[in-house]
Design brief:
Order of helices and strands: HHHHH
Distance between the termini: 62 Å
Low-confidence stretches: 12-30
Shape: globular
Largest sheet: none
Oligomer: single chain
Number of domains: 1
Structural class: mainly alpha
Number of helices: 5
Radius of gyration: 18 Å
Strand content: under 5%
Helix content: 25-40%
Number of strands: 0
Length: 137
């Protein structure tokens, strides 16, 4: 095989793998439908119930081996989401956070296809919580 062709295949393979293994922060859809004014969001009162109901169920983000190694049970979720370097929370631009982007993703949505998607108001609560500083309150 020609050396240039081998190099081309190697570079193409590396690019495809790197693309497949990266998180596409730009892949978001703005949910419509929540006309409620949401402010002063509390993690324990407003956000955690959404996570508990929609994410921290058996076989998903709970238990000893949670999906994506992200446990969203009430006693563990805030620490897991706020872990430095993970990008789950972005207080400057919530739409680019892993948490928010996963909720509105068209290709790999959370909750996954087949489960009830989050309501627009639940997504807005999570967005506002991040905008307000993502406090553990």
């Amino acid at each position: 095989m020609n050396q240039h062709y081998k190099s081309y295949l190697l570079i193409t393979g590396i690019l495809l793998l790197s693309y497949a293994c990266t998180y596409n922060k730009g892949e978001t859809v703005n949910p419509a439908g929540c006309t409620t004014v949401i402010e002063n969001v509390s993690f324990s009162v407003d956000v955690q119930p959404v996570l508990t109901t929609n994410c921290a169920s058996a076989g998903c983000h709970s238990g000893n081996t949670p999906e994506g190694n992200l446990n969203l049970e009430a006693s563990k979720s805030y620490a897991a989401l706020s872990k430095p370097g993970k990008g789950y929370i972005d207080t400057d631009n919530p739409h680019y956070s892993v948490l928010y982007s996963s909720m509105v993703s068209t290709s790999d949505p959370m909750p996954p296809v087949g489960r009830q998607p989050l309501s627009a108001c639940d997504m807005k609560k999570i967005e506002v919580w991040m905008k307000e500083g993502a406090l553990d309150n």
